[in-house]
Amino acid sequence: MRRLKRPNDKERGAAGVLVAVMMLVLIGAGAMAVDVGQIYAERAQLQNAADAGAMAAAHQCHKAGGCTVTQATAWAQELAGPNSNDGATDIASVDLSVAKQVTVATSTRSGSNGFLTKMFASALNAPPVTVGAHATASFFPPGGGSGFPLAISDQCYNLSAASPTGVVQKISYKPGGTCTGPSGTQIPGGWGWLDQDSPCEATTQTGTNLMGSDPGNNPPSGCKEILDGWAATILAGGEVNVAFPIFDDATNKGQNGNYNIVGYATFKIWGWKFGNNHVYEFRNTKDDPGMNSSLACSAGNDRCIIGQFVKYESIESYTGTPGKDFGTVAIRLIN
Predict the structure, then answer these.
(1) What is the 3-state secondary structure (H, E, C) of 85-120?
(2) Do 73 and 94 contact (CB within 8 A), yes or no?
(3) Measuring CA to CA, which residue among 99, 98, 79, 96 is closest to residue 87?
(4) Distance CA 83, CA 60 (A)
(5) What Cα–Cα distance (Å) separates residue 124 from each residue in 24, 31, 144, 290?
(6) Partner residues linked to 281 by β-bridges
(7) CB 136 within 8 Å of CB 327
(8) What is the pLDDT of residues 302-321, one digit of tens each?
(9) Contacting residues for 287 by C-beta, under 8 A, at least 6 apart
(10) Using alpha carbons only, how large is the chain's radius of gyration in Å?
(11) Which candidate, 327, 299, 285, places its Cα nearest to that of 139?
(12) Cβ atoms < 10 Å from Cβ of 105
């Protein structure tokens, strides 16, 4: 029987070296996979923070009528941290150089100088990693949308001066004077009902003269539930802010009438009289809270809506080319 040869002494340990080298490669690859996952997760959190910070700063900058970089940074920081999972997010910069836009850049806060330091690859002498994100929010007057089917004339009221302390006023259905529009048409120019797309809702858009009228004193059908909701909110101490389409001219009359919509203004509603029964009347007499005889709308066929125009920032989606600025803006992320 032939004897098995003993291994050459020079080949001893070769497998051990090979295993050691492969273990180093595998550990490095594993560390890289874990670290890349951490970087992507951190990047996602920073993007959430940048989005929230940009939206918050845009909202506050419009509400305040303007802002500085210092103010915008503070407003962005308030929401940046809470909108990242670890709450460790810094605002790296805020850019206000483009009108009606706010760009916010974020960076990670863990470690020194904004670096991620708890990285497995550091065991292989890899340098720390910095991660960042940015977002741009824009605010602009809406150019279209759906809402309560009531349009208001811009010929009678200074809508562009909307502010939280705006004067409380009564907007009448037939205010008289020059409020029938510049062309003297027969559609009442204080406000007028619009054709509906669905119960108590009309879709409007700026830049057209095709917004049909729905003639008559009383509102279109299907508005009871909405009016009940408004009343319940006000009685509970809340606010009812409604963005109404604004028209600068009207043509024809009755069912053939049209309104030329130029923009949207938000009205903080105190009361109304859209008809002569309980659902269509709310806090419209001089004895109601906050009312007086000049605001009252309680006699006969009088129709009016009572409240004040206010600045308003909405994150709802609007369509169409931006309209005229009446103090209401839509805020959205554009980058």
Answers:
(1) CCCCEEEEEEECCCCCEEEEEEEECCCHHHEECCCH
(2) yes
(3) 79
(4) 17
(5) 9, 9, 58, 72
(6) 273
(7) no
(8) 888 899 888 888 876 666 67
(9) none
(10) 31
(11) 327
(12) 20
Asked whether 227 and 279 are in contact (CB, 8 A), the reply is yes
The DSSP letter of residue 194 is B
Residue 148, strand partner residues: none
Nearest to 152 by CA among 241, 243, 281, 220: 243
Residue 40 vs residues 47, 134, 149: alpha-carbon distances, Å: 10, 15, 47
Q: Position 215: which residue type?
A: P
- Report the distance separating Cα 247 and Cα 189, nearest Å: 9
Give the pLDDT confidence of 57-66 residue by residue, as tens digits: 999 998 888 8
Pairing of strands 258-273, 241-251: antiparallel
Amino acid at residue number 195 = D
Per-residue pLDDT tens over the stretch 121-152:
555 555 556 777 889 999 889 888 889 988 88
Structure tokens that stand for 39 in this block:
């970087």
Q: What DSSP letter does each residue of 42-102 carry, written as one string? A: HHHHHHHHHHHHHHHHHHHHHHTT---HHHHHHHHHHHHTTTSTTS-EEEEEEE--STTEE
pTM (2 d.p.): 0.74
pLDDT of residue 250: 72
DSSP H helix total and E strand total for the chain: 3, 18
